[in-house]
Amino acid sequence: MKKTFAMAAMAIAISMGSISCKKKISDADLTTAATTVVSAYSGSSVEVKDGVAHLSGEFASEADKKAAIEALKKITGVKDVMDMASVKAAVIETASAIDPALQQKVTDALKDFPSVKVGVENGELTLTGDVTSSQARKIKESVDALKLGKVNFNYTVK
Predict the structure, then answer these.
(1) What predicted TM-score, i.e. pTM, was given to this entire model?
(2) pLDDT digits (tens, 9 = 90+) for 121-132
């Protein structure tokens, strides 16, 4: 029994010794490997401290960010990934909320005022140009008679 106990203790000691002799990968080496992984995503960067990768920067999409995180987790020696990165806001192009027929009605109502241009800015009907104060009053009355709702009168009164 003493012999079995001694053999078991020796086996445990040897296995613990071999585990503790395992080579530790330096943070500098991990940072180099991690930087290589995220270099595919412009605007992003990574730094490794104590085996934890700190991902920062801005990604084009959430899918790109998730892919970078998963790739970092697969690097041998990286214990965890701290996500401090953001995703660029999506650019949403909106179609004009103004009906072209409505825009044409305003253009027709203002045919006597050639210096005034009718357009759409930020989804709203906008009038621009140079007018006199009496013309401004007539334009306002003509447009209000159409009952369009919000109209931006961005013309210059001289």
Answers:
(1) 0.47
(2) 777 788 888 888
**pLDDT digit string (tens) for 34-79?**
999 899 888 899 999 999 999 999 999 999 999 999 999 999 999 9
DSSP code per residue over 84-137 = --EEPPPP-----SS-HHHHHHHHHHTTT-TT-EEEEETTEEEEESEE-HHHHH
What CA–CA distance (Å, rounded) separates 146 from 24? 77
Nearest-CA neighbor of 68 among 87, 41, 33, 42?
41
pLDDT tens by residue, 96-137: 556 777 778 888 888 888 888 888 877 778 888 888 888 888
Q: CA-CA-CA-CA torsion for 78, 79, 85, 91, nearest 10 degrees? A: 80
- Beta strands (DSSP E) in 7-113 are 44-49, 52-59, 80-83, 86-87
Whole-number Å distance between alpha carbons of 73 and 52: 10
